[in-house]
Amino acid sequence: MVMIMGITKEFFGTAKDGREVYVFSLENANGMKANVLNFGAILKNLYVPDNKGNVADVVLGFDDLEGYYKNYSFFGTTIGPSANRIGNAKFQINGKTYQIDVNDGPNNLHSHLELGYHKRVWDVTEINDNSVTFSLEAPDGDMGFPGNKKISITYELSDDNALKLTYHAVSDADTLINMTNHTYFNLSGHQAGKTEDHIVTIHASNYTPVVSGAITTGEIIPVAGTPMDFTSPKPIGQDIRADYEQLKLASGYDHNYVVDGADGTLREIAEVEDPKSGRKMKTFSTLPGVQFYAGNCIGEEIGKEGVPYGPRVGMCLETQYFPDSINKPQFPSVVFGPGRDYHAITVYQFV
């Protein structure tokens, strides 16, 4: 273990390409600590005190690199260049059709299951007292996406218990960029079992419904009067088994919510409270959408510290542009390139 600018760096394993993988530990004055990997730019641990000072690791993950090479649920990962689903695994930019990996029925999920940014070793390009920046370059045609790209993500932990994620990407040609972080939270602790009692508020009066295969229809419809409504605080489990088509299609909540008033500035988009521990997390983002995923399809597997994981033991708030936006011109544009850099900020703050 070595100390760099107040951040510890510890060897974690050797990647398949022979490069070394490290855990970088950021810690604030309140005993909150974030461990991040240069493999997949992954959030491995997030230790957070409760209102009695008891510290728990509130994110799902694995103890070794082999676990993250499998990682069927994408625990803690940075997803790119395209998060979520793309219908028929193809899209057009400037009149040219691009075919990408077919890996989720006929569709594409998270760019590529084995070659996506979540399974690459990132360069460590900057370390400061409370932050670390990971970067990578992707050549034109990588995974079928156009443009030579340079991508970075900075993790920053502040003394107001906020973990800030800043994304930036540039491309020399128009391309599709829609990144996210796929951390699963359990505010009782990653070992605590189901999160259905977590109380969630999402500042979104509308959402984007899906068809079978979880591809968005292109509509934006109100949540009011439906089980999809989280505009007021509500336990995840309250309506998750409702006789409602959208919930049946996704085996529960796995939908993109349209952030109220989104205009590219950083704003609060959601809040989660755990009644058992008293931990409360606010989420802020500059992005227009957030995929609320209740962990319906987490497989039965062994996570950190030998803990058995399964369905709904963690929940995600994946800030992003809308799913399949590239094929839905009425949705916010996910085309970036010369003259339009990709830049986004997400903050998870414990209060």
Brief description of this entry?
With 351 residues, the chain is mostly beta strands.
Q: Figure out the total of helices.
A: 2
Distance between the termini: 31 Å
- Tell me the overall shape: globular
Total beta strands: 30
| Helix percentage | under 10%
Q: Class by helix and strand content?
A: mainly beta
Low-confidence stretches: none
Largest sheet: 9 strands, antiparallel
What's the gyration radius in Å? 19 Å
Please render the helix and strand layout as text:
Layout: E1 2-4, E2 7-14, E3 20-27, E4 33-37, E5 43-49, E6 55-57, H1 65-70, E7 78-79, E8 85-86, E9 90-93, E10 96-99, E11 108-109, E12 123-128, E13 131-138, E14 149-157, E15 162-171, E16 175-176, E17 180-181, E18 199-202, E19 206-208, E20 221-222, E21 234-235, H2 245-249, E22 254-258, E23 267-273, E24 280-285, E25 289-293, E26 301-302, E27 308-309, E28 316-320, E29 335-336, E30 342-350
Antiparallel strand pairs: 1-2, 2-3, 3-4, 4-5, 5-6, 7-17, 8-11, 9-10, 12-13, 13-14, 14-15, 15-30, 16-29, 18-21, 18-23, 19-20, 19-22, 22-25, 23-24, 24-30, 25-28, 26-27
